User: Which sequence fits this backbone?
């Protein structure tokens, strides 16, 4: 093989012209260069060899569970598929139809995903609502009506008492026959707790028995999967089914959790399942992730009724590889999902979410101060929550305690139900609570929060849009809200991470909304009683409506959500889509920005990154930046005192030596070099591929023995006459491994890993192989840095 | 230098421990590895050398005009700067303040950019409006009022005749003293043309004399600059000043152009100018481009009153390197700009744009058919426009014709003015035309387009929101609109590319809006006269308002804009922000999608990419995908019969040989190899850096002669005793050049170039240097492919 090692670089190969036959290029990592057969090993065996190699070895190019995909290889595979389809499509009408089907399958799969996500979100909304009301009572006229629907048909109730109607019976009324009194209160209390426990028990049991992956919010895992990790079954049909059912149960059980995160998981399951209908997506892990990105946009779209926010969420928070084509399709999926949900109309208000609001009063500059204060609160809460929750989850993982998930869920559910019932703000559905807190007081508002003294006669009244003195109702509401705040804070820490589907958005927003409403009412009363302060003088005359406590609740909700997740743009856009006014973006931005900065001061990870790290997933965050002072040679393996790197030589190893190296090491792949003497890098071979190829050769090729020579070159090496038949492994050799020099700064290496989605990279010095850097090495290196090096202050 | 070439890779360097001193890493390409001095060349000269090297050679690391930046180097430079600031900031309060200033400068610069862009947009709007009305007449009571403002104060006019008031005098009234009659018509006609010509002449003269870069829309150049190209002065203060002034003049001259594209240029100038206040941005080309991305978002934000659309435009259309941090800052800049513009309130409607609309009627499913038809029209128009405009521009570039830009502008302006005046739809400002076409007919609408027959008595009346038979006014309006359509189509082709600031958004939207309105009225009349057709039966009873012609105008505008620019998500979001209703996104998406597909069928480039190609800018589009069947070795230089690659050897060249190579070739850089015999790659040195370093050495170092040995290694080679002093150039050697193997498929190479922003990449085979691939080679290769290979059908 002199020619391969030729020192003259300007007269290279025999076969390397300008046009390379199509079949030569069937995917990186599989047989690139198997043209012009014939060589040292005799013509007959060579044709046999060629036959064998032309059919791709089954299994080569697939991945094991819990392994990282090779983005580059997947993208090449996809383009190869395209080439095949393009070259075939002129052959027949059938092939042309197939090529059209292939071209449109991207749109089909996102449409189907959008439709399914929207429909499932509608079903979940309706079912959760019904089950939630079941804790309080039943509708006698029609069992399947929830409280609100039950009383719609009733003509006997007035608008103010629209919650009460004879058809709707509380459990006390039904069982004891009486609606008032301590006995019925206890009965209702008992039934409330009973149902909550039943739902929680059912949920955790279903998850445990049928689909362990259905628990949690799913977003950390989806982020990891989108970054190129394989977790088989995480997005499968069982997970989808069980997650949908148990999500309804978990929400209805009254636990401090929301359905927004799990809805993203549900949408991604839909995307994954539908992608199996289209070979373009089912057979390519990189393409499949495009569908999943679109699906996560659809998930957020239905969770918050915010299609644009959903797309930005997908872009900012979960996606890794996001070509512009995906942006457009994600947008489409998000819209389709939103329209399906709107036509299902689960809340009866032709809106996608319960807590859509419209404000009519502007905000004033001095209000930025309380808004920023809410931002600080949000950041503190976020930092505190992340630390406390991670500490608790770590304890659960490491101690015996984690072995009884059912018991844990039931305990938490029981405590939640028992503590929640007496306080009206914790008893009700969290979404409804948020809606109530967001809504501005108006003449039609019957809430306790809107009990202000009328200016005319000093008695209690519901003012129509002007600041007024608070009546005792507001004060008692403030007390109850404060208790609810403490309750929610504590329970959320223990709830997120339970073995039931549990989202974090709604509890976080609820906490922020409570805090915000409290601050809002405080500012409002301050402005009312001190309207001659220089701050208020300009805007808050007596009788004017200058403070909107509902807006404070919304700003607080955004701040708390921002503190926990560290989302920025997408969060602001989501909340903007909830309010529908550009007007309020500035307060939102101020609060979200403050919250992020305050949160980042205590630790730069959001809750999802923290959970990814807790679970040890190999996720290379695209957002973190560090100032490395290291070079590639400091991070590469082997380190100074390690055993030398396990390498293969291109043409002088026997099968026995090869198998020996494979069995003695556990590396996922091996560099191939010219020879032990020259150490120049030829390529890279994956362990899995080598094993498969050897087995395949053993099955199909005769004469392969332990002392067979293994070669990765184009032509077989010249061998003694009596030597057994050699084994050609060139087809599994990746002849274009990524390399960096040993002097490359690590920041560049990390950048390359992130942007190209590498699994490993070889380190050379003047063309000679020195070592290898894997994604795992990079993660370890970043982990080390995190402990020693300050992050970039620039990242504000 | 045995150690450098050591074949044993596992025991490498003396100095290479885990921690590398800070100063060793001052930027890629400059002195990485100049630790532990002392070597073959004697201690005294070595310390001298070290002193020399520690101060960076001035000029190394900067760029020439019309060259491409090295993203990787810039990013490393920035991190190095951070390290310095971070390490210093604990030294003193002053350093700490400086570090805070540095950390906040990102926010400061985008805030300033947003403020300036908003203010300039407001000024441009107001001035253009005033100048435009000057073509018709003057306000006697106050010269500086435009027509509308002039008549605001007038109490004598009724609402229906709000355009007429005694204070406002047309030129005929002023000069001839009469308002009616053929004489005054001719006078007005003459003055209209006179002013139009004056404005156009002034605009083109100013551009020609003061700032040639101020012409055109600027978006192709900004895209190129953002992708890493240097065009000095393109974003400078002269360009800003002249562009602002001439934009006003050009818009007022009535040419078929808009201010939206140039506003993006103006905003980018602001961003560039403000970035000079902050060393973090002024001294780093990569960081500066972050500011420019944010600025372009601000530009679109004020152009269309669409902050979110602006961010997505920046992301989808112009930006190249867009980290998430930039997304957040772009959003902020866009918001600030929008709020400044809103407080300036140039249109007196507290909206950011003239043509903000709100529709109140839904659309029906059968309307998708005309919407898709409009999409087809938009796509056809886009494809036709791009071809025709590029052909015309090419003709202008290649023939003598392009030598008389002033004459050309005046000719086009004269034709435009003369043809435009008689037709009311072309005489008026294009933005106003779009507003009129978008607006739905209501009881207050006095437009000719709203002259319907009343259902009661058959006479002309303005119906309040229900379909009706068109009156003659509508028919004559349809005729005039058709003529206006033809006129706009022709004039826009000849206008875009003139040497005045000229945007394309408004003319494109106007064409689409005219076509859309015509289709809308046609469908409306069809529905009115055939309301028993099965299509209309369900929705269009007599008296119901089922068709909104204004919506058709908007859909048409989006389709035409989409056809010309091939924008997708950002376009839909921009138009969504104009209407403020999620409801109409589906028609918009359908039309924009159709328009893109139809346009792509005729050629996949948008107008901006086409102009980039026309001007030969080195822009590597991130969106195009091809199925290459080539490998790196097919694209690399030298080709088979070329002269061998010009390489430097690491330690056996003399200064004369080096200078010889530099003077004989024109390459921007040279690979450095171990020796002519071994050909193994060591690094890469830039031509500019070598020249600067040699000059610097000549000036500062004694004893450098033509036969001095030049070396790139750590230690000087052992030389004969009488040889002159050697020159060490290691500090300018990039020791981590990007390499790929010759077998790497070109699609991967292109991907690497795009994602990492490379300028060149070396090609190796088994560690031996074979050739080089530059960005130019890649662009040529893609150009070739474009002619031979079908693009990916998948890209639908």
Assistant:
């Amino acid at each position: 093989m002199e020619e391969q090692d030729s020192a003259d670089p300007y007269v290279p190969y025999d076969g390397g012209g300008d046009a390379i036959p199509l079949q030569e290029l069937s995917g990186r990592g599989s047989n690139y260069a198997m043209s012009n057969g014939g060589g040292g090993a005799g013509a007959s065996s060579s044709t046999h060899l060629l036959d064998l190699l032309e059919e791709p070895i089954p299994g080569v190019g697939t991945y094991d569970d819990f392994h990282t995909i090779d983005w580059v290889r997947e993208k090449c595979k996809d383009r190869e598929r395209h080439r095949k389809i393009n070259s075939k499509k002129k052959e027949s009408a059938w092939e042309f139809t197939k090529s059209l089907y292939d071209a449109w399958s991207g749109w089909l799969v996102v449409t189907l995903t959008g439709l399914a996500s929207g429909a499932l979100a509608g079903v979940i909304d309706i079912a959760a609502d019904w089950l939630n009301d079941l804790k309080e009572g039943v509708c006698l006229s029609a069992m399947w009506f929830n409280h609100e629907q039950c009383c719609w048909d009733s003509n006997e109730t007035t608008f103010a008492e629209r919650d009460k109607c004879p058809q709707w019976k509380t459990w006390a009324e039904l069982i004891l026959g009486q609606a008032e009194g301590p006995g019925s209160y206890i009965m209702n209390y008992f039934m409330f707790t009973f149902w909550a426990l039943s739902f929680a028990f059912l949920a955790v049991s279903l998850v445990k028995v049928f689909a362990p992956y259905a628990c949690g919010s799913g977003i950390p895992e989806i982020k990891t999967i989108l970054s190129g990790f394989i977790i088989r079954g995480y997005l499968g049909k069982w997970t989808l089914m069980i997650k949908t059912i148990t999500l309804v149960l978990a929400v209805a059980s009254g636990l401090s959790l929301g359905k927004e995160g799990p809805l993203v998981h549900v949408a991604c399951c839909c995307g994954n399942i539908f992608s199996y209908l289209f070979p373009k997506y089912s057979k390519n892990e990189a393409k499949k992730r495009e569908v999943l990105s679109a699906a996560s946009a659809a998930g957020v779209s239905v969770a918050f009724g915010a299609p644009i926010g959903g797309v930005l969420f997908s872009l900012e928070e979960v996606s890794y590889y996001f070509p512009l084509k995906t942006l457009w399709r994600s947008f489409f999926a998000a819209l389709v999902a939103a329209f399906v949900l709107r036509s299902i109309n689960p809340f009866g208000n032709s809106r996608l979410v319960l807590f859509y609001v419209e404000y009519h009063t502007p905000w004033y500059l001095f209000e930025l101060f309380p808004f920023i204060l809410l931002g600080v609160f949000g950041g503190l809460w976020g930092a505190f929550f992340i630390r406390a929750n991670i500490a608790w989850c770590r304890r659960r993982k490491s101690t015996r305690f984690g072995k009884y998930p059912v018991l844990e869920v039931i305990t938490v559910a029981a405590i939640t139900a028992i503590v929640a019932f007496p306080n009206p703000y914790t008893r009700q559905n969290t979404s409804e609570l948020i809606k109530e807190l967001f809504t501005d007081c108006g003449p039609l508002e019957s809430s306790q929060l809107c009990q202000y003294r009328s200016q005319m006669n000093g008695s209690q009244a519901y003012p129509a849009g002007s600041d007024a003195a608070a009546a005792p109702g507001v004060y008692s509401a403030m007390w109850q809200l404060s208790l609810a705040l403490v309750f929610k804070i504590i329970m959320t820490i223990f709830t997120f991470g339970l073995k039931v589907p549990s989202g974090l958005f709604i509890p976080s927003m609820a906490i922020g909304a409570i805090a915000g409403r409290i601050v809002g009412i405080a500012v409002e009363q301050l402005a009312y009683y001190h309207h001659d302060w220089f701050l208020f003088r300009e805007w808050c005359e007596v009788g004017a409506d200058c403070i909107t406590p509902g807006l404070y609740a919304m700003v607080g909700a955004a701040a708390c959500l921002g503190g926990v997740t560290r989302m920025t743009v997408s969060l602001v856009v989501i909340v903007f889509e909830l309010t529908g006014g550009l007007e309020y973006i500035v307060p939102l931005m101020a609060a979200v920005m403050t919250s992020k900065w305050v949160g980042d001061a205590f630790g730069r990870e959001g809750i999802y990154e923290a959970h990814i790290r807790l679970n040890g997933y190999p996720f290379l965050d695209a957002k973190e930046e560090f100032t490395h002072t290291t070079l590639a040679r400091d991070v590469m393996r082997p380190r100074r005192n390690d055993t030398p790197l396990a390498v293969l030589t291109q043409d002088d190893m026997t099968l026995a030596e090869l198998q020996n190296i494979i069995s003695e090491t556990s590396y996922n792949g091996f560099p191939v070099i010219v020879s032990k003497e020259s150490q120049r890098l030829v390529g890279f071979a994956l362990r899995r591929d080598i094993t498969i190829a050897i087995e395949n050769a053993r099955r199909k090729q005769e004469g392969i023995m332990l002392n067979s020579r293994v070669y990765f070159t184009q032509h077989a090496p010249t061998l003694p006459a009596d030597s057994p038949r050699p084994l050609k492994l060139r087809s599994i050799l990746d002849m274009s491994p990524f390399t960096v020099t040993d002097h490359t700064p690590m920041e560049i290496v990390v950048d390359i890993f992130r942007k190209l989605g590498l699994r490993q990279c070889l380190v050379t010095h003047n063309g000679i192989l020195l070592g290898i850097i894997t994604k795992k090495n990079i993660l370890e290196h970043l982990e080390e840095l995190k402990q020693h090096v300050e992050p970039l202050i620039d990242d504000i």
